[in-house]
Queue: 2 jobs
Job 1
Amino acid sequence: MSEFNKLVFSGVQPTGNLHLGNYLGAIRKFVALQEGNDCIYCVVDLHAITAQLVHEDLRGQIRSIAAAFIASGIDPEKHIVFNQSAVPQHAELAWVFNCVARIGWMNRMTQFKDKAGKDRENASLGLLAYPSLMAADILIYRGTHVPVGDDQKQHLELARDIAMKFNLDYQDNIRTSGLGTDIVVGEEPVHAFFPMVEPLIDGPAPRVMSLRDGTKKMSKSDPSDLSRINLMDDEDAISKKIRKAKTDPDGLPSETEGLKGRPEADNLVGIYAALADKSKTEVLAEFGGQQFSVFKPALVDLAVNVLSPITGEMRRLMEDTSHIDAILKKGGERARVRAEKTMNEVRDIIGFLR
Ligand code: AMP
Ligand code: TRP
């Protein structure tokens, strides 16, 4: 529960091609949340340099994420679309959070462990502090709701831990500055400056799996292009990848119970449901008892119908980058005004002179 104004915030890294996992786990939800909410959607370019410092055509990558947002239906006039590095307050608040968060918290993050691999000592300090910047992205706007895929759940729990520790450590200063609001966290009343962010992870495809292996997440970094549907794939590529998608020999069950222990079938049904804005139960009511030879062509048609207008619009937007650049610049200016307000309050709470 919170007394804070509802604000939706999310971010996508400009690293590699966007795929169906990004679209269903994140961007499609961003679009739906626009109705009736104040939303800020960010291309998180500062995060992009944590795992790999030098990127070929980083500017192009940033523009293509922004193009995907717009092509999917995000309205940059009603809401805010910008790139993170244009608003330096993200990095400034992240520094404060680096002093709030504990090294032990960061070391426990599974994404850090995965990305750092065996040679942890040689990972960048930025990769370790990544979740602290992510918390700052959201909290610099005092964001309350964050639509993401399932893989980001742990990072959002950490954002809550950071917000809570800041609120508790600075409890007295928050009061004497006349800032903050009374909330209850669990049973405990807290005078909070930062809200407890709520992850929005639900839906039929919170974790879209690889088309080659239903136990692995669909990912930008999988060496096999057949494992994912990219947002820039054309009809032929989509059709080929779905036809070749791994399945088991059985037909589709009539109820979701029957998807247990069948990760590939579960994944394809989840993808269909998310693309059709239906539940898995509804999809199985329609396709239960059918073979994949019937289901796959239906999935191809649906995927092409949903994705090809987006792909077409992305291509069109990428032809004239000045339009995208203007959207990002204006979004950055609007975001900066809000971020500076919060940052000034944080400076007052901490006791910096300004
Ligand atoms: P990233 O590309 O890592 O910045 O991810 C952008 C968004 O897409 C985040 O909200 C992720 O949680 C989401 N996402 C990435 N991969 C998947 C996937 N396979 N299934 C569902 N959501 C995903
Ligand atoms: N860590 C997220 C990812 O890899 C991207 C991200 C950065 C983000 N800052 C954020 C997502 C703030 C939500 C809110 O997908």
Job 2
Amino acid sequence: MLEISDNGRTWLLTGPTSSYAVHLTDADELLHLHWGPRIALADAEALAVRPLPEYWPFESPLDGREEYPVEGGPRFVRPALSVRTEERRGTEWGFERYETEGDELRLRFCDDGLTVTLHYRMRGDVVERWVTLDNQGPALELLRADSATWTLPDREEWRLSQLHGRWGAESRLARAPLTYGEKVIGSRRGHTGHQHLPWVALDTDATEERGEVYGCALGWSGSWRIAVAQLPDARVQITGGAGHDDSGLLRLAPGESFTTPVFAGLWSDGGFGGASRAWHAYQRAYVIPDADQDRPVLFNSWEATEFDISEEQQSLLARRAAAIGVELFVVDDGWFGTRTSDRAGLGDWTPNPDRFPSGLKPLAEYVHALGMQFGIWVEPEMVNPDSELYRAHPEWVQHQTGRKRTEFRNQLVLNLARDDVQEYLWERLDQILSSAPIDYVKWDFNRCFTDAGWPGEPYPQRLWVDHVRALYGLLDRLRAAHPGVAFESCSGGGGRIDLGVLSRTDQVWTSDNTDPLDRLAVQHGFSQLHPARAMAAWVTDSPNAMLNHRASSLRFRFVSAMAGVLGVGGDLTRWTEEELAEAREWVTLYKEIRPVVQRGDQYRLREPRGGLSAVQYALGDETVVFAWLQAQSFGEPVPALRLRALDPTVSYECLETGEIHRGAVLAHHGLRTGLRGDLDATVIRLRRI
Ligand code: DGJ
């Protein structure tokens, strides 16, 4: 809901539990008024007439209060907008008008020929903000154009939560007090990065289920930056957007425009859990395509076979996968060109004739005949120098004249800002998807930008931004042309997870680390922002070959992976009959609980910190609890799990044991899990009676 004051200078957006208000002063300063619990327009108007504090000349009363601080004038905070023309730098804007379209509010400002429009839209309790810049004046350089600046209310002792990581260890939650100055996170790598998810949360005293939490998440899959500033008067603002430093984002020629990605903000007073559930609901309703459709159980061949693949051996794996109940069989890297290792073939998107003499169609049809969908791996944005593509078009990669072309994993990055590169990729991918009944594409990205140059193009070069736009364009075009195909975002595991890519993909590869214990921490962090519906998790072999050689039971591995979109990635040709039979039982169970996991509300009952951890999902009358015991020390009793979202006045039947539990007892005294020893795990289903 959007309400506007009679004088047209105070705007109030309201969601189910929260409100957001801004006000334009008589001097055309756009001030932030409110972000928090629901208020009435009269409350916003009362806030609007509160005088600004008076400061000595070394501070600005605007700092920490402006909705979108531009560069220049009486401001000392980091600007959200920084532009430069031949003649001058900064912005001195005047308010032009406001517009509404449906539930979207647009506030339009002008500085000579540059129009800056701030966009606001409420989606549930999530405020979506973005900015468009339309240049009808002289050419200008956009040094910085953040999507939004978020202003927090006056409070003491803010804490900052972030999700940090690296390859094999993504999305790990860190929480620490905020102090004066700035905390800056981001990616300078051309993709979202393993190092930080583009999200922060701020609270003062929240617990998992109580207290105020403010969060912001950026929808951009290239380089980005979020700066959280505690200003000299202790006020906190968060500004964020595309682009990684102040060296320039784009040039805007006369007549050109730029739209920033969305920076979404959420206030919740339901603690960290309530905030996460609101983010999950938002993504399922407004971001992830077809989120009401449950994702199938997949098999992925990577850990089983790596590059050593053939049609016959993939067929054998497919038979095994079908026999345990897998619904989607995905052939990973190695099916195309001369790609028999990571040294060659990337870029040549035709099936390897030695491995797939009649193309992918026979295997795809075979997989379909086994009752499964068929998927393939691609990494379209890259090329090995040892490839037909690179030999034909060495100028198609990002590079700088006279400088080295840095290789990571023996590959270079294609310059997707080029129309000819985009067209090549579109033709190749469209051709592959038309050549065989393919239902699923795992889209990988296995190195960061380094020598991101485009000889002949003026600086600042638009290839950083245009690479992401081209990626989005390709995904959009492929989805439109092949509406039955689902896409997975992968970047050496979880290197490209953000709201931007999630609006075009059906699920993400969470991490190359498939160790089921490490995964609990990764999944705990992931769940702060993203729903289980998007979180792919595989059961692989034990001991874990990829990361740490830790041995774990099939039970522990399945219960860990079943908390997301279940997949299997082990070498099924080496699993014993008993293991295959057990796997089949877990897959059957997963299919039964899948609607609750993928569409239900998630409650983190205990975080993974060494002993017992647990997650609960609730949907309608059904509740599913996943519990893991990392280690039991000194034979101490394992704590009971106090469940959430239950009706205390009714009873629940445990589908595992047939026991009847009172809701009030489960909520206040807890559910006993029966877990013992080390690396034990269980799934408990409860149904309201
Ligand atoms: C990195 C991915 O994360 C893996 O799952 C696998 O697809 C490899 N790339 C293949 O090269």
